[in-house]
Amino acid sequence: MPKGDRSLISLECSVCKERNYTTTKNRRKQQDKLAMSKFCSRCRKHTEHKEGKAG
Fold first, then answer.
1. Side-by-side strand order, sheet with 45-51
2. Quick check: is 46 in a domain?
3. Which of 24, 19, 29 is nearest to 9 (CA)?
4. Domain membership flag for residue 28
């Protein structure tokens, strides 16, 4: 369980909607949704992964 203001989020592929990665983020400092380029094993290429629901 993350400590303090950090909360656990999952990153999902914007193409196939598979949740591939989990990370933490500080919700006080960054209210907008996180988006980064990561490798999707289902699509077999780098795609944009956006913040989805925690879990």
1. 19-26, 6-13, 45-51, 35-40
2. yes
3. 24
4. yes
Range of the domain at 10: 6-51
The three-class DSSP label of residue 12 is: strand
What CATH code is carried by the domain that includes residue 45? 2.20.28.120
Q: State whether the Cα torsion 2-37-47-39 is positive or negative.
A: negative
8 Å CB contact between 45 and 15: no
Prediction pTM value: 0.78
Length of the chain: 55
- The identity of residue 12, as a single letter, is E
pLDDT digits (tens, 9 = 90+) for 8-34: 899 999 999 999 899 999 888 888 999
Q: Is 1 among the domain residues?
A: no
